[in-house]
Every structure is written in C-alpha cells, then in structure tokens.
Design goal:
Blueprint: E1 2-10, H1 15-25, E2 29-34, E3 41-47, H2 53-61, E4 67-75
Antiparallel strand pairs: 1-3, 1-4, 2-3
C-alpha cells in the first residue's frame, strides 16, 4: 500500500466543496483537513502498490472542480499512529 499526502489550493470560496467532493467521490481517501497557509486543504490517500501515483493525482485529483493547484508528498514509513 502506498501512502500519499496531497495539499490543495482551491479557487476562492471552493475549499468546502472540494473537501466534500474528495470525501464523497474518491474512495482512496483516508482523511482531509482544512489548513492555513499556502494551501487550503491537506488529504491523506492510500493507493494499491501497482497504482500509478502520477495518473491518480493528475487525472483524479487535479481535475476536481475548484482545485487550482496541488502539492504531493509521498510517505515512506509511518512511525506510530493512533
């Protein structure tokens, strides 16, 4: 299983709609948070090992209505958890 974190810049007034779309339409999502700073949202996704990350981000996430930019971080190892 691959873990990625994606930060989203949203068009003005669209952050809640983008968060709703992520939760409702993207089955690979684990959680999504609103944030302050350069990006409006950050979301955690789990993808199958054979899944192409580039295609997932560019075709599935960047095309959501209201998304203006993304920043993707690939995670390698989790050190504990809830």
């Amino acid at each position: 299983m691959q873990t990625i974190f994606v930060q989203f810049k949203c068009r003005p007034g669209k952050a809640y709609a983008v968060a709703d779309a992520l939760v409702q339409d993207v089955e690979e999502i684990s959680e999504v948070f609103s944030t302050s700073g350069h990006y409006d949202l950050i979301a955690k996704f789990y993808l199958a090992d054979d899944r192409d990350l580039g295609h997932f981000v560019t075709e599935r996430l960047q095309t959501l209505d209201g998304v203006s930019d993304t920043f993707t971080t690939v995670a390698f190892k989790a050190f504990g958890g809830v």
